[in-house]
Amino acid sequence: MLQAHKDGADIISASIGGPGGWGQGEELLTTVNKLVQEKGAIIIVAAGNEGSEGLFFGDNPASAKNAISVGSVEAQSIVAGKFKASTGKELTFYRTSTLNLSGEYPVYITANSTDDSSDACDELPKHTPNLTNHIVLVKRG
Question: Which intervals hold domain Peptidase S8/S53 (predicted)?
């Protein structure tokens, strides 16, 4: 991090560290805090790879007071829901949180194929209707 800043980097992104959190690992934390406070650098650090340890087990230097800690999660369970198409066919969908809707909503599907790994990654076609008050289904991936 020090070398990156010495080389002129204003934003430093790192995927380094080790178990700690809660202010442990003083040397790394001090380095991050000095770079931010004294030199104006923005420090982005991976939160760690110990997700199975729980919410409060972050790595250092990601736990530094002035660092931006970034992480990712992958749920071990997914909430399934059902909807009924206008054809009468009942379909299942999955989402990571509950969906509290009542009433009927039109469903808009952005791709006709489940093989499309870039579904809705680009601007939708100009003929796409106004999707306000619609349920929009986009393939995850």
Answer: 4-86
